[in-house]
Amino acid sequence: MTTLSAIGEFGLIRRFSPPFLKKLPKDLMGIGDDCAVLPWKGRMRLLVTTDMLVEDVHFLRAKIPARDLGYKSLSVSLSDIAAMGGRPESAFLSLALPAEIRVEWLDAFFRGLKDLAAAERVRLLGGDTTKSPDLIIINIAVIGRADRERIKFRSGAKPGDLICVTGELGDSGGGLRLLLKDGPVDKDERYLVRKHNRPRPHLEEGAWLAGQDGITAMMDVSDGIDSDLRRIMERSRCGVVVDLERLPVSAPLRRTAEKRGWNVHEAAAAGGEDYCLLAAVRAERIKKIETGFRKRFCRSLAVIGRVTERTTGLRYFAGRLPIKLGRRGFDHFG
Ligand code: ADP
Ligand code: MG
């Protein structure tokens, strides 16, 4: 007998998906990337993604303001559209709710959802609402669009490519760690908790990168780069080496790690839910893309490592020193 915890979330997906991937038409992409890709009109393609948030697994009701939870619920799905280089268009929201929940809590939840929907011009077009015995479950499916010539997949990274991230790593994981302990006690810690509760989907960054020549693979950072790089490695059949000293870390995380005795490299590599983007870039294009990114976004695109042959797997260095991480990225059943 084997339990789910033995094979993990990704072991399960690998186990059930093959028959559903067989005989798919050439212009249809199913299970395996941040979004499914469906034919639409002309060069345009539909992107579809769905994400679920379960109380006590993805959030603690007492530790996240309802407005932030509404915002975050949409944000995590929009992030998958960003990861393909697309634009989101519409959303469908399914809620399972305990009957005792306060209507004021729900009003605030919808206000948060509306904040982000309005900012990104996403229309809520439907969903489903059911009763739940005691836990809140939120599922949001998002439909987006992209030009087929620009869509970026997890596959496509080649040895020699450089690995980049569009934002600072570990803030959200740090915020979660604080919430699970005594909560934030100062300005730095409140910053981390805010990054955890209200992550911004990198839609502009994704669309910009998708328009650049030389981006060979892209995905969003949802489980921590330690886990997410393995997804790129699996789809691109490659290895990756990461220089931990190059991981972009915010000043609040650096100071908090120092103060609380956290290993800052592990916090950045294994903390999840940053929702920035990971991209592989052809080496000869990197200078141009770095410069363009800085011009467009007024901050740097961080180069954190490079793609290697498959046999080398995922390896970490601090400068030249090989490092073994003490923590792994997130796997639901791992
Ligand atoms: P993401 O974190 O971007 O949402 P995952 O890495 O969790 O994506 O999932 C990998 C792939 O497996 C995705 O293409 C996703 O749609 C698919 N997938 C995950 N769970 C299921 C499921 N229960 N049924 C069908 N496909 C699934
Ligand atoms: Mg994703």
Number of strands: 12
At the fourth level of CATH, the homologous superfamily of the largest domain is PurM-like C-terminal domain
Number of helices: 11
Proportion of residues in extended strands: 15-25%
* Helix content class: 25-40%
How are helices and strands ordered from N to C?
HHEEHEHEEEHHHEHEHHEHEEE
The CATH architecture of the largest domain can be given as Alpha-Beta Complex
What ligands does this structure carry? Answer: adenosine-5'-diphosphate, magnesium ion
Largest sheet: 7 strands, mixed
**What would you report as the Rg, rounded to the nearest angstrom?**
20 Å
State the strand order across the main sheet.
Answer: 7-9-6-10-8-11-12
Mean pLDDT: 96
Which structural class fits the helix and strand makeup?
alpha+beta
Please provide a written account of the structure.
The chain has 334 residues and is α+β, with helices and mostly antiparallel strands. It has two domains: 4-147, PurM-like, N-terminal domain (60s Ribosomal Protein L30, Chain: A); 162-323, Phosphoribosyl-aminoimidazole Synthetase, Chain A, domain 2. Helices cover 37% and strands 24% of the residues. The chain contains eleven helices and twelve strands. A seven-stranded mixed sheet has the order 7-9-6-10-8-11-12, with helices on both faces. The chain has a five-stranded mixed sheet with strand order 1-2-5-3-4, with helices on one face. Strand 3, helix 4 and strand 4 (123-131) form a beta-alpha-beta unit. Helix 3 runs parallel beside helix 7 (203-210). The longest helix is centred in the N-terminal third of the chain and has 19 residues, at 66-84. The radius of gyration is 20 Å and the shape is globular. The structure holds adenosine-5'-diphosphate and magnesium ion (MG). The site of magnesium ion has 6 residues, from helix 3 and strand 7. Magnesium ion is lined by residues 34, 80, 83, 219-220, 222.
